[in-house]
Structure formats: structure tokens, C-alpha cells
Design a protein that fits this description.
By secondary structure, this protein is mainly beta. It contains one helix and eleven strands.
């Protein structure tokens, strides 16, 4: 499937978004900060980082902006609203809401890979109000109701 993207002026000279490997699910997104600009995310801070791209997703698809696992595990930097959703009718610049959950300041520079974009199908449903729902073994059990860990965990 071909999807149209538009490179905005702030993304000039940045690498084209691409899959890092043949089996990759996400397309790398880059920080489109001004040349020479550095943005420092202090521990606990968040900021909206531009990618310099807009996209025309086909109807029935969405873009999911997801964290990069390397940034998360090595630096504690992730996406605050993960996954961020790009609706098929949105044509503005894709931006990434990064947060530093790590213990050290994190420096973002132009061209840094900051997130990944996964294109996924969307299913629309019709919600129907009812008086009761069908019963299940789980019932209304919420967080942690199916067990906390591996086999034998409480």
C-alpha cells in the first residue's frame, strides 16, 4: 500500500522515514528541530517534538506514534500519550509528545530518531445500549484480576 507523505520545510535534509529492517513494524520518525537547536528534557519534563512530516492516510487506517524501545530502556524517554493516534483525516504536522521518566537530562538534537510510526487498520463499530451484558467468568474484575505474574503468582 502506498501512503502519501509531505516533507515540511523543517524536515529538509533529514533522512526519509523508513523501516529500519525488513521485519520492522514501525517507520522511524526524526526530530525536525532547527539546525543547531538542542532541546533538553529534564527528568519529569515533557515536550512536543516536530517531525517535519504530514501524512495522508487512507480512510480505514490510522497512524500510531509509538515509543522507540531503545530510548525507553536506555534513557527512560517515552511517548506520554502512547500510542499517539493520527486519524486518517488529519493533515497537520506529526508531532511526538516525549517525556523523560529517567533520572538524567535527555538531549534531543535535529535528526535524532525519536519515535516510530505504525500504520494500522481501524474498525468502526456501532454501539448499541443495552440493559445487561452477557456474563463471563471474569465478570467485572478489573486491574490485576487475572493474576499479577507468571505461573503460580498470586
Amino acid at each position: 500500500m502506498k501512503v502519501a507523505i509531505r516533507r515540511l520545510p523543517n524536515a529538509e535534509s533529514l533522512p526519509s522515514p523508513a523501516y529500519a529492517s525488513e521485519g520492522a513494524a514501525g517507520i522511524d520518525l526524526y526530530a525536525a528541530l532547527a539546525p543547531g537547536q538542542k532541546l533538553v528534557l529534564e527528568p519529569g519534563a515533557r515536550d512536543l517534538i516536530p517531525t517535519g512530516l504530514s501524512i495522508a492516510l487512507p480512510r480505514g487506517y490510522e497512524g500510531q506514534v509509538r515509543p522507540r524501545s531503545g530510548l525507553a530502556v536506555e534513557r527512560g524517554v517515552t511517548i506520554l500519550n502512547a500510542p499517539g493516534t493520527i486519524d486518517s483525516d488529519y493533515r497537520g504536522e506529526i508531532k511526538t509528545l516525549l517525556i523523560n521518566l529517567g533520572a538524567q537530562p535527555f538531549e534531543i538534537v535535529r535528526g535524532m530518531r525519536i519515535a516510530q510510526l505504525v500504520i494500522a487498520p481501524v474498525t468502526h463499530v456501532t454501539l448499541v445500549e443495552v440493559d445487561d451484558l452477557d456474563a463471563t467468568l471474569r465478570g467485572a474484575g478489573g486491574f490485576g484480576s487475572t493474576g499479577l505474574g507468571g505461573e503460580g503468582a498470586p
